[in-house]
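Provenance and format

Records in this collection were gathered into a single text stream. Each protein contributes a sequence line and a token line. The two records reproduced below are adjacent in the stream.
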Amino acid sequence: MTDMTDKKLEKSAFFALKNWYSLADSRKKKQARDQAQLVINMCKNVLKSVRRGVDAENREKALCFGILFRGLQDFVDLTEITDAPDWITKHALIEKAWTKMWDCKERVEYASYFCHERTIDWVLSRIEFLENLFLTTFGPGLYSSPEIIAKQEICNVCKKDFRSCDHIAGRIYDGVRCVAKPKDIQLRRVSIVQNPENPRCRIWPWQLREDNTIETCIMTAFRMDDFMDGS
């Protein structure tokens, strides 16, 4: 059992957030990444040591702050990519920056519903600038969108059939972010769309081959709380 109460966790996280901003704004990338990792480790420890049903508020704050600082790590990684003077001309870096931008945006926006700080606004404003740069340089783009059939979806909170349980996807229940996990999936087809569910699956012009086939991503394994992997 950890002695990290929800008040101590919140105080430590907000203090670290100010430190992180100072480091990130000064382009001290390694220190900023390390600062974020310290908070992630703290949150992970709370989620591992405080059992469900014992201290829901502490667990929920730990998950939210963990997701936030995981997004701040994404931002540092993104800054490292885009600080290269010619990154916008290199295909591999463009694709990497695009994916990292969306990882960062989704995590930080999600955490912003629970945590209202100027640092979050600062990060999101820079993400918006980068989005506009992509739009200006490459246009709105086209995306691959798979149609997947699942025989069943299981709620990760209660482990029951998601169609019959009372939990809502995206909400946090006692430190667990609700998602529906598909079972026995089958890929039916892949469509090309303008408004995708997953913008990471963008089709870039250089992915078109001479035989008019496309080598591109159709699915990704992104998870808000992947910092809990291996726990």
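Adjacent record:
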Amino acid sequence: MKILIIGLGTFGKSLFEELKKDGTSEMVIVDKDENLIEMNKEGTSYAIAGDSMNIETLQKLPTDIDVAVCCIGSDMSASLITCLNLKELQMNRIIARSSSSYHSQILRAIGIDKDDIIFPEEEVGVRLGKRLLHRHVFNNIILAGNHVLSEIKVKNQFIGMKLKDLHLRERFKINVVAIKYREKEISEDGENIYIEKILDVPDPDYVFTSDTTLVVVGEESAIERFKEEL
């Protein structure tokens, strides 16, 4: 997949670094700051310093880009004009960063799909809120569509119960794919130490302890319902 990133601010640079680290996508970058382009061009197939509000800048890019991500957030005019230019160039898919509901409304009006408009600050705030409200939830990893993988620590009221007692498939349509727990061992020095272990084929008769963490997969809405009860 060939991905175009426009704007190497904090958000754009983070996205670029993550995709580059993965190494499965071909990267193209655009920013009007020549220094930023010079510092980040390594590992890209194409890097250009120029103003994305000028369609001639974008016309210099490869024509086989699969996804264009407009990471411009603070300058709404620059964001909107850039997206209009990308639409005019008939880019396959455009993902745009938004800074406000008003910004999003205009992005939708010019043809950006609602699901392709992102609010980085709002999404971070929502995730932090969930972490504070659900302190027993450690990680959420988006898999595909609405499905996520989540690590959830078992609450005290479930200690002593068996995995099969929760009836997760029947009640929530989610699956437990692994169980993490800590086991006490004696070190070479004779001290008690706790080693984290994992059951990658969970036993329905497994009895929950205070150190049990469930690794579950399912639709995000189903896992959210499970979290509320757990």
